[in-house]
Protein: Phosphoribosylglycinamide formyltransferase
Organism: Sphingobium phenoxybenzoativorans
Amino acid sequence: KAKVAVLISGRGSNMAALLYAAKAADCPFEIVLVAANDPGAAGLVLAAAEGVATFAMSHKGLKRAEFDRIIDAEIRKAGAEYVALAGYMRLLSPEFVGKWEGRMLNIHPSLLPKYKGLDTHKRALEAGDSHAGCSVHIVTAELDDGPVLGQTPVAILPGDTEDALAARILIAEHQLYSRVLAEYVQRDSQPEAILAQVRERAMALPRAE
Ligand code: GAR
């Protein structure tokens, strides 16, 4: 089975979805580590209770690249081959992203390329969209920008609040992430075809001075 490290910052419900999906005998991945940048992240308790190794350390007071090197070392120590970001609310250093190129996925609560960043549900409601949803994508150096591997549209209902919409999208997130991660780790073409896509996109980006 493909070994996956999951990075979280809080509740960890997507991490839990991956962890429970991984309990199925025919699931092609297993969770070997749950790491958090906040020792108070609720998801850590669940992961530990399920017998999964955990690592937690606050990023406060550390430079981004320095903190990411610590996380990277932990992930490697755990033997992970893939990284799944699941509500990891921290930008990653280009060094870290480079090291996991084509092997790091993220779940985002919008139909990308719409609504990158925060407040996705609010923005979808304010725009009067008929559908919101969630996306799983490959992580690149640009925020919420890598190639999209899968999406689930979720209808916006009359009278929907941010919380109600977020709760419904979360149900879709849990299913989507498990399915897409399973498909991804089984791909024969991986990582060559995906890497070509990632690199093409990186070259098209304006260079930061
Ligand atoms: C999820 O809705 C996830 O899509 C979102 O944070 C929530 C985490 O919940 N992620 C982002 O907004 C990343 N930009 P969880 O901790 O229960 O999985």
